[in-house]
Specification:
Blueprint: H1 3-17, H2 24-34, H3 42-50, H4 57-67, H5 71-76, H6 97-108, H7 111-128, H8 134-139
Helix pairs in contact: 2-3
GO molecular function, one term: DNA binding
InterPro entries: Cro/C1-type_HTH, Lambda_DNA-bd_dom_sf
Domain HTH cro/C1-type: 40-74
């Protein structure tokens, strides 16, 4: 069996284990709710499930996070030889109570609404960014 077909089998198994139907329409909807980039098409996810193609690394990471599986396992089918433990993100900048409240509200939203909020914030940031500012480079 080739690697694309084996990936498709692992993807289907992960979807089933997470309680989702192994249908392209389900995968398309759930993936696009969680992915910040350009939405993926029905045909593309169908190719993933049929074993015709394997998603790029950024999409694979989103799939793995959503389905609560190791991205290395999802892609290659073998347990990772090592684990990378990341500590919780900590910001050097202290946040105001208003910023903490906004973050708390954002985190309480469903994934679809979080995506809308992110898109609105990105649009504002692009519209009001100063040329050559560090934030502009993050959004490009």
């Amino acid at each position: 069996m080739n690697e694309k077909i084996m990936f498709a089998e692992r993807l289907k198994a992960a979807m089933q284990a997470a309680g989702y139907d192994e249908r392209p329409s389900v995968l398309e909807r759930e993936f696009n709710l969680r992915y910040w980039g350009k939405p993926i098409t029905f045909q593309a996810v169908r190719r993933w499930l049929r074993g015709d193609s394997i998603p790029s690394q950024d999409k694979l990471q989103v799939l793995a996070r959503w389905l609560s599986v190791d991205p290395h396992y999802l892609r290659y089918g073998e347990a990772a030889a090592y684990n990378i433990n990341e500590s919780s993100a900590s910001w050097d900048v202290s946040s105001s109570s208003e910023e903490r409240q906004m973050l708390s509200l954002y985190r309480s939203l469903p994934a679809a609404q979080q995506k809308v909020v992110r898109e609105v914030m990105e649009t504002f940031a692009k519209a009001y960014s100063v040329p050559d500012s560090p934030n502009k480079r993050l959004l490009d």
